[in-house]
Task: structure prediction
Amino acid sequence: MGIRLGCIADDFTGATDLANNLVRAGMRVVQLIDVPPVGAEQPVDADAVVIALKSRTTPASEAVAASLRALEWLRSAGAEQIYFKYCSTFDSTQAGNIGPVTEALMDAIGTDFTVATPAFPDNGRTVFKGHLFVGDVLLSESGMRHHPLTPMTDSNLVSVLGAQTARPVGLIDHTVVAAGAEAIRERVDRLRKEGVGTAIVDAVSNDDLLRLGAAVKGLPLVTAGSGLAIGLPANWGFESSPSAAQLPPHGGQRAIVSGSVSTATNGQVQEFLRGGRPAFSVDPLRIAAGEDVVGQALSYAATHLPEGPVLVYSTEAPEAVKDVQGRLGAAEAGELVERTLARVAQGLVELGVRQLVVAGGETSGAVVQALGLTGLRIGPQIDPGVPWCAAALPDGDPLHITLKSGNFGGPDFFTAAFARLDSARLGLACLDSARLDGETA
Ligand code: ADP
Result:
């Protein structure tokens, strides 16, 4: 049987966030890193596939082309419904890309109507009367108004999206959403007759998203942040179950590669060091001076891996990072560190590491690329928004990997992550034996 839900996400960590929500609502999910090349189509054993693009801030024509390639792949894999996923702060440039991609998908699918809601109440993103709130403030009063690539200065999503689309944009407001799925469907019919192409939908709670989820059953295309994902799996009869997050058995050595410079990661590194655990610090100035930092890190790791997880990190407090950036240039320093950590990750895998934690969004991208990973099966959640994943190395060997964006995760994330992998395995073993007992009883 083919997949049920096909998702197109406009960035990498957003794709994982969406996949994580779908798994928690009971679907087995595979995340693909970019669209597989033509001719490399392989059947995917999953209920939903999320294709991660990098199309949020590219020129609109490129975002459209990439999204249409993803659509073609997902439909050939059997997807019955398409989910275009964007950021919960509706990040878009003046030229798009949310509007142009939405309309291109509508044209390609042959549908005249879709919904749009970035609401994700669990993360403080709510939509009321078409206006997006970030925590307690309007989007236009949040930090997003100063974003370097996608400054958001208008909170009225009907007008933001209206400026990006040829078709009229409407609103399904909270009174309708609160009245339930049937009322939403009636409003959809009316808006459709009025010629509305996309309706912004209010949602201030998970219940709103569940009602909307039920109402959009059968709609060929939905567009949303990751929040709506909680309301879709039930349309195919999926229920929350740990088996959706089941990964193949894990093994091998354990390591952590951290190139994140965020506050949360700094705390996680400090916590790991306080525990007296093996850690190797990567100094960007030594890399720049031509030292074989990769070789040093790997010989340290080779000695210490048998003791348990080894951390290789460039994570530093903001002042130290600024100092390095001042000496090497911010972009150059970033690239130098990313390249080094990606090679360290390759070397760790060669040393037998098969459980790998990576901290930092950019760092994760570099590591995934260096390891040649093309797809991730999404497993159990460690902390909100951060699941374990299983991937195949190019030689077919399994690798368990988790990609933590900077500010995610509790203070003990680096040790809790491995404990989570063990407990998920044990939990599933118990579940399986309970099921077997039930069958024999
Ligand atoms: P985060 O999610 O915390 O922003 P990223 O990996 O996305 O983490 O980005 C961090 C950037 O900072 C990367 O480009 C990384 O290579 C760079 N970096 C990491 N450590 C240092 C350091 N000590 N000095 C300068 N730049 C660094």
